[in-house]
Amino acid sequence: MRGALGGPRVLLRRLREVMAEPVSAQDRLDKIVVLIAANMVAEVCSVYVLRVDQTLELYATEGLNRDAVHLTVMRVDEGLVGHVAREAESLALSDAQAHPEFAYRPETGEEIYNSFLGVPILRGGNTLGVLVVQNRARRTYTEEEIEALQTTAMVLAEMIASGELTALAKPGAEPAIRRPVHLKGVPLADGLGLGYVVLHEPRIKVTNVIADDVMKETERLDAAIGKLRHAIDAMLEDDGLSKAGEHRDILEAYRMFAHDRGWMHKMREAVLSGLTAEGAVERVQSDTRARMMRASDPYLRERLHDLDDLANRLLRELTGRGRGMEREALPENAILVARNMSPAALLDYDRARIRGLVLEEGGTTSHVTIVARALGIAAVGQVENAAGLADQGDPVIVDGQAGEVHLRPPGDVEEAYAEKVRYRARRQAQYAALRTRPSVTKDGLHIDLHLNAGLLVDLPHIAETGASGIGLFRTELQFMIASTFPRISEQLKLYRAVLDAAGERPVTFRTLDIGGDKVLPYMRAVEEENPALGWRAIRLGLDRPGLLRSQVRALLRAGAGRELRVMFPMVAAVEEFDHARAIVERELTHLRKHGHGLPDRVFVGAMVEVPSLLFQLDEILARADFLSVGSNDLVQFLYAADRSNMRVADRFDPLSAPALRAFRMVAEAGSRHGKPITLCGELASRPLEAVALAALGYRSLSVSPASIGPVKATLLELDVAAARKVLLPLLDDRTGTVDIRATLRAFALASGLAL
């Protein structure tokens, strides 16, 4: 390096020696700036640390007035140092005072210095501070010198991240790496979760960044890149690549990045400057992340996730570490933080230890959200950069009602939420007092409240909530958490346990609803352009009759001597229902022939989720014993709005005329035919929506366990006839200007209903 004493490798070796010395944090910083100044042949070297109040404090200097240390503070919108911190990019100037953002601070004595080189101190793309060198002479800093200073800044980043500098800070002015962060998102599942961060895809923490043998590190880097490329190529060539949750377009992007010469060149340069292979990957990815986080182009920001994942894959190759945290290593109060998750991935965790879920994506009706609600886990989605801001083990609060996340909360916020938890517990006690009270409205109408369930852990909720039964048992959850396809004996054991727990209360089993984002890990998935409209649910069952027959046989055997209710999902035409019901009849004949006990009676129903069935209601009700409305999918298909696509998922309100008219059609058809109709989608779990459904004629709702209390409390005070007088004219209004939700909310509040 031109003008340097010994070059970057010598500097890094000396830095490692300083880092190992048993000295105070301030002494260590003071020694570091002296070393850098000598190596860079610079009269000044200074370290500025970003504080929790988003100002920059001078923590150490060689060349400026040392009395200014911990006294000089500037805003991030002030001066050249602020510019480097704000833009997260290096700035090299031969005439610093001519720059329009130059700000003179008289206490530092820097007016005699002309040349300026500042680099951001980055970790995970987040700015922790700024490292600066200055010269009296007007000097042009070379690319090699800038690279060397960036490499040194990485060592300082780890020092700041370790918390070593916290002891040097005044209260309220601690380094920003540990600052409290308040994040806003979208409420997914109600509840409060207080606990500690568990990253679903944890970043590999790089602790050794200074190389002993540069050639050896270069060889390690090249070997790891070769293995990474081979693994990606193998996944692309494998017809079953979706088994790992990968999709071809993502893998194609990975392959493009993995073969990118610029990416490779930057990492090799970082190794040649004296970093380990792991340090080089971390350095290059942090720089790239910092730039892309500030990009306005949504495509570039989307690619950031791909690059993050690719860098983490490469680090796993280098370190030999696995993808996630061992189950036994989970803290007692774990808050999962992820970009996104499949329902199967959530179910793979120890549910007893999970208190909350934070997603960078995730919609209110996505399947992982439904599972979180079923498990009683507070969840917030669409939290920007959540996984990048959080560190493993950070204290965190998840407010699933307000859609807020408090990362590293201050004491007063933590205490406020602890009180809120105590208040919710008292409120739950009030709901529990309603457990044995019949769900009868103010004007005497009985509305059954059933549970949505899917796992053995859900069964105690039947007695705890006083539910009328289980209106939707999602049988696919057992298949999703198993490592191999469950045998008939295993299915039989589960179904019997569910019926035993319910006792005399009815249980409605939904046959396998897999496909879309519910992929079984041991089955080869089919790549489809639009999985939600593709080969899933009853379509898959009818095309693979052996799969459906084995499940129906297990259900029929489990129901021996009692009533059994079975329904088929995503029926789009009456012919599909006829074929499915024929399979039930065939299995009954088989069991009868072989002397097995049979259910006293079998009720067979269909889910109304596909709009085409709205125009075959009389035909399907002539065949089915009951119908159940799946409001999540029905609304999705009515509005052609993919519920997993955050740009459109919440674009349309289910309490609007088109959706409510569709719900009314089903309720009225059931009344005409004298057949029971239940609504089992997430819509029924919200008190205001439950008011609308009661007004439309629904007398059976199936909701999440946590919603039984709030919905029952509302229904007990509801005058359904009064609600009908308000709602039905709104559905017949053809102006298209009526806000049904607002009008219904005003009615509820005026009626004293608790929402």
Please tell me about this protein's structure.
This protein has 26 helices and 22 strands. The strands form three sheets. An eight-stranded mixed beta sheet has the order 7-14-13-9-10-11-12-8. An eight-stranded parallel beta sheet has the order 21-20-19-18-17-16-15-22. A six-stranded antiparallel beta sheet has the order 3-2-1-6-5-4. Mean pLDDT is 86; it is low at 1-5 and 239-247. With 755 residues, it is an alpha/beta fold.
Q: What's a concise summary of this model?
A:
The chain is built from 26 helices and 22 strands. The protein is an alpha/beta fold and 755 residues long. The protein starts with 6 loop residues before the first helix and ends in a 5-residue tail after the last helix.
As an assembly, this protein is single chain
First-to-last CA distance: 68 Å
Which residue ranges are poorly predicted, with pLDDT under 50 across at least 5 consecutive positions?
1-5, 239-247
Proportion of residues in extended strands: 15-25%
Q: Order of strands in the sheet with the most strands?
A: 7-14-13-9-10-11-12-8
* Relative helix content: 40-55%
Please identify the structural class as seen in this structure: alpha/beta
The number of E-state strands comes to: 22
Q: Any idea what the shape is?
A: elongated
Number of helices: 26
- Mind telling me the C-alpha Rg? 31 Å
Mean pLDDT across every amino acid position: 86
Query: How would you sum up the major sheet?
Result: 8 strands, mixed
